[in-house]
Amino acid sequence: MFKHFITLQWKSFWRSASMTSGLFMKLFMGFWAVWLIIMMVSGGAGAFFYIKKELSLDPLQVVNRFLIYWMIADLIFRYALQKMPVINIKPLLLLPFKKKKIVSFAFGKTVLSFFNIVHAFFFIPFSILLVAEGNHPLGNVILWNIGLIAIIYSSNFLNILLNKKDNLIFLVGGIVAILIGLQYFGYFDITVYTAPFFQGLYDSWIIVLIPVVVLIILLALSFRSFVFDLYLDAGLASKSKDIKTENLDWLNRFGKTATFLKNDIKLIKRNKRARSTVLVSVLFLFYGLLFFTGSVEQYDGPVFRIFAAIFVTGGFLLSFGQFVPSWDSSYYPLMMSQNIKYKEYLSSKWWLMVIATLISTVLASGYLYYGWEVYLAIIVGAIYNIGVNSHVVLWAGAYVKTPIDLTSNKKAFGDRQAFNTKTLLLSLPKMVLPMILYAIGHYAYSPYAGYALVTIAGIAGFAFKDKVFDKIESIYRSEKYKTIVAYKQKN
Amino acid sequence: MIAVHNLTKTYTGNTVLNIDHLEIPKGNSFGLVGNNGAGKTTLFSALLDLIKPTSGHIENNGIKVNESEEWKSVTAAFIDETFLIGYLTAEEYFYFIGELRGQNKADVDALLSNFEDFFHGEILGQKKYLRDLSKGNQKKVGIIASFIGNPEVIILDEPFANLDPTTQIRLKKIIKELSANPEITVLVSSHDLMHVTEVCDRIVVLDKGEVVKDIATSEETLRELEAHFNK
Questions:
Q1: pLDDT tier, B109 (very low <50, low <70, confident <90, very high otherwise)
Q2: Alpha-carbon span A365 to A10, nearest angstrom
Q3: What is the signed CA dihedral for B187, B191, B192, B194, rounded to 10 degrees?
C-alpha cells in the first residue's frame, strides 16, 4: 500500500512546475543544506572543545543548560518553516485505503524531515566526543540521546498540532522573548530549572521515560486528530467566516495606483500566506539583536551592521517583493486580459514595500538603546532598501514563476506555512553590495564614509526606478505566455 | 470585428488548432461547439492573447491582438475561475473590474441592478469571499463582470456549465438581449447544443482544431448538429 503513496509522492515532486524550472534553485538550496550540515557538525565538535578547553567546564552540563533554548528555537523554526506533510488527500479518500494508512504515510514523511535530521549533525559528533574525550560512560550518553530524540520528535508532532492554530506563534514567541530578557538582565534564569531535567536524561532512564511518554501521547493525539479530520467538511474543508466588504476609498488619493493598492491591501489582510510576510518583517525587526548586542562573536565586524540594518528594515520588502507578480498568480489571466498599466500595478507593490520599510524603521528606533550609531546604520539600511533593494527585489521577482496558492494554508495537509527557505535564500545577494560599499568606505576612510557610500547608492537607486520598471515591464511582456502556463500548474 | 488568419497552435508536434480563415462580423452572436479537445478554449485563449499561436494571427477590431493592447478596452471575457479574485467579495470584485475599465461605483451599481434576477439573491450582500462561493455562483459573478465597461466583444467559455436550470434560462435571455445590440459581438462556447442554437445566430463546429461546420442558425440547425455529433 505504501508503495502507491511513495510513487505518487515521487511523481508529484518531480513533475511539479517549480521542479522542472528551478535547477539553479536546487543547486543553491543544496549548497546551503550542505553548508548548514557542515556548520552543525563543526558546531558540535567545536562546542565540545571550546567549553572544555577554554571554559574548563563540563561540556555536557553547559549544553544541558542551554538545551531549553535550543528546543524552543527548534519549535519556532518548525512552526515558521517546516511544511506540513503534503499529500493529495481528496482523491484518495474514496479508494480502498484505510484512513490510518493515509495518515501514517503523511506522518512518516515528517519523521524524515530535514528539521528532525539536522539535529543529528550536531549531537552525534558531540556525543562521540563526550565518550571518547570526556570520559562519559557510553550507556548514559546513549540514554541522553534517546531522551533528546524523543524531545525533538515530540516537537515535530507538537508542531503538527499547533500548526492548525493561528497566532499561537506570537504567544510562544512572546514568552520566549520575556524569558530571554529576564535571563539577560539577571532577574530569572529558567535554565536553572530545566538543566537538571536534561542532566536527568543522562543520569537516569526513568527521566528518559518522560519525553518518550510525551512523544507517544503527542503522536497518538495528532494521529487521532488527523484521522478524525479526514472529512471534506472537517480538516479538509476550507473554513469560511462572515466577512465585510471593505471600503478603502481614502486610498484614492494615490491616483491610478489606488486601484491596485486597495486590492493589494486586501490581498495581504485576507490571505494567510500573504499575511505572514508581515509576520516576517516583525521577526526581522528583532534580528538585529543578534548583531548589536554583540552576543554572536562572528557578527561583531562593523560590516555586519549594514547587513543587520538591511534585514531589520527590509523583512517585508524582501519576503513580499520576492513574489511579485506571483501573488496575483491565481488570477493572472484576468489581469492579462484587462487593459492594465504595468507601471501602476508595479508602483502599487512598490509603495507597499516603501511604507512597510518606513514603518519598520520607526519601530526599529528601539535600537537607539544600543547607541545612536546603531540607529544611524538602520536608517542607512532603510534608505538603501527603499532606493535600491525595492527595485532589485521586484526585478528578481519578475523571473519567479512559482504559482502561489493563497488559500493553501486552509487545507489540513497543505503547505501551511508561508514564507519558505527559498525566499530567504534569494534575498542574500541583495545584502552583499551594501556590505561591500560600506567596507570600502569604512576601511578606506571612516565608518561615516561607509554610511555615506551606502546612502549615496540608495539615493542613486531612485534615479533608476523608471528604468527598472521599464525593464520589469518588458520582462512581464516577453514572459507573459510562459508565466500564464506556469501559474496554471498547481501543486 | 474579429478575424482569424491562418491560425495554428501546435504542442510538441500535436496540432490542436488549425483555422485558415474565420471572420466574425460586428454584432454577431457566435456559438462555438465541439467535443473535448476540439480547441474551443484554445481559440478563445488565443483571442485574448493568453497563448501564443504557433503561426498566424488574430485581429480584434482591426488590431493584431499580440502586437497592441488597444483591443483590451473593448473586449471582456470569462473563461474560468482564473478570471476571479478569490479573496474579494462579489461587490469588491465588480468595483475592481469597474475601476480597471474606467467605471465608477455608480456606473457599476447601475449595471448590476439589471441583473438582480440573475443573481437570485446569492451574490450581492453575501458575507463571503468569492473563493467560498459555490461553482455556480462564482460563474454568475464572472459572467456579469464581463459586462462591465460597455465591452464590444464579450467572450464566454462554457457559460451554461454548472448553472442551475433557472439561471440557465435567465442567462439565455441575457445573451439574447446582448446580441440584439448591433454594437456587441458575443462569443459563446458550449457543450449544450440546445442552448447554443437558441442564443446564437451563427454556429461553428470545431473538430480536432479545424472548422468542420459553419452554419447560420435556423430551425434545422439543432437536428443538423445532433446528426453531426451522433456519427
A1: very high
A2: 49
A3: 60
pLDDT at A359: 92
SS3 A63: helix
A337 touches chain B (CB under 8 A): yes
Q: Judged by CB atoms within 8 Å, which residues 396-415 of A form the interface with B?
A: 406-407
Phi, psi of A176, deg, nearest 5: -65, -45
CA A74 to chain centre: 12
User: Helix/strand/coil (H, E, C) string of B203-225?
Assistant: EEEEECCEEEEEEECCCCHHHHH
The dihedral built from the CA positions of residue A31, A37, A40 and A44, taken in this order, carries a sign that is: negative
CA separation, residue A375 to residues A64, A363, A370 (Å): 36, 11, 8
pLDDT at A407: 65
Predicted local distance difference test score (pLDDT) of residue A331 = 92
Helix (H), strand (E) at residue B94: helix B90-100
- pLDDT value of residue A417: 36
Whether the CB-CB separation of B209 and B46 falls below 8 Å is answered with: no
| Contact call for B88 and A339, based on CB within 8 A | no
Q: Is the pLDDT of residue B99 over 70?
A: yes
Contacts of B10 (CB under 8 A, 6+ apart): B16, B54
* Residue B32 pLDDT grade (very low, low, confident, very high; cuts 50, 70, 90): very high
Residue type, A203: D
**C-alpha to C-alpha distance for A144 and A306, rounded to whole angstroms:** 41
pLDDT of residue A233: 63
Range B11-22 average pLDDT: 91
Rounded-to-integer distance, Cα A116 and Cα A146, Å: 14
Beta strands B2-11; B14-24: pairing state:
antiparallel
Q: What is the mean pLDDT of residues B203-225?
A: 91
Task: Say how far residue A255 (Cα) sits from the centre of its chain.
Answer: 35
Note which residues in 291-330 of chain A have CB less than 8 A from chain B: 330
The closest of A396, A385, A395 to A356, measured between CA atoms, is A385
Cβ-defined contacts of A218-223 (< 8 Å, 24+): A218/A154, A218/A157, A218/A158, A218/A161, A219/A107, A219/A153, A219/A157, A221/A157, A221/A161, A222/A107, A222/A157, A222/A160, A222/A161, A223/A100, A223/A103, A223/A104, A223/A107
B101 min Cα distance to partner chain A (Å): 7
Q: How many CB pairs lie under 8 A apart between chains A and B?
A: 81
Residues with pLDDT less than 50, chain A? 21, 409-420, 423, 491
Q: B90 with B142: CB under 8 angstroms?
A: no
Residue-wise pLDDT for A371-391, tens only, equals: 888 899 999 999 999 998 998
